[in-house]
Design goal:
By secondary structure, this protein is mainly α. 66% of the residues lie in helices and 0% in strands. It is built from 4 helices and no strands. The two termini are 35 Å apart.
Length: 80
């Protein structure tokens, strides 16, 4: 597969498949947003694999302000 094939979009597209993929993305996004890093593949990778291998000191911070800031960032991104 060449580079153009990797980033190209198929034509024509099966409408049912496209809608099923979008539904899966929405369900995953809602689950990840609702549970934070618990179900997020990236959050799981960082908290269980990457972070334990770093020698930096632990810097704990309260979770609710971080979640609030993330929510505000998502809302601002949607407005643009």
């Amino acid at each position: 597969m060449d580079g153009a094939g990797l980033f190209s979009f198929p034509h024509p597209v099966d409408e049912v498949s496209a809608r099923l993929v979008v539904t899966g993305v929405v369900v995953q996004f809602a689950g990840i947003l609702a549970t934070g890093p618990t179900l997020s593949p990236l959050g799981t990778l960082v908290t269980r694999v990457v972070r334990p291998r770093l020698s930096w000191a632990v810097r704990e911070a309260p979770g609710p302000p971080k979640r609030f800031a993330h929510g505000i960032g998502e809302r601002c991104r949607r407005v643009r």
